[in-house]
Amino acid sequence: MKILVCVKQVPDTTEVKIDPVKGTLIREGVPSIMNPDDANAIEEALRIKDKYPDTKITVVSMGPPAAELVLYECMGMGADDAYLITDRAFGGSDTWATSNVIAEAIKYLGTFDIIFAGRQAIDGDTAQVGPQIAEKLGIPQITYVQKVEIEGDKLVVERNLENGYEVLEATTPIMLTAIKELNEPRLMNMRAIHKGFHEAGIKQITNAELKIEPDMAGLKASPTNVKKTFTPELIVKGTRIEGNPKDAAKELVRQLKLNHII
């Protein structure tokens, strides 16, 4: 089985700064991490490999050269190959343009049975790129995945809903987007870290290979732009309950019930 996992490097902060001209994130000086949902995606791919050792896991990420770090992390967890999709022509891409680039990169790499992605990235919260990639590859998709089982030649997948979950059966190839309830990501191990840094390494895919037209990638090709991002001011209104402890406790319980907290 061949599995591809899409991961993203995101800023590890709730206070992001925006370039006033481009409307894009300013990442300089901000520590970066692997997007949390993407960690669940790579973990699920690794769990499949644990059960089916002949599985090959390829990881891709689109971003600047510094995004190699998140790919090395994936290698340290146990991925077999890693590719950084990077080119100045791709800079400033929105979700539509990003999915164009990643879909073309996947086609360039070959065919895969399962493509995993995180549900959404914490720096954008759009949950659009995974489904858009599936559409551009012409394959089915299941989003908000909280459980995956392989039964013969089919997948049995639990898809999380607001008030429960649904069980779906699917065949490959397919795109699955992961949520945190899917699993608990493992830590890196020394053997895999050594292999990633000294044997496999990170390969790059640029527009020299993909040959994407200017109207399909980059800032100018993006139909959406970030105009403003900010951390909302937290306003907490408290209530002080006066009186003796017994009466205060009764009043507290009454107010909690009134507000449907208990």
UniProtKB/TrEMBL annotation:
Pfam families: ETF (PF01012). PANTHER family: ELECTRON TRANSFER FLAVOPROTEIN BETA-SUBUNIT, PROTEIN FIXA. This is Electron transfer flavoprotein small subunit. Gene3D superfamilies: HUPs. Residues 22-214 form the Electron transfer flavoprotein alpha/beta-subunit N-terminal domain.
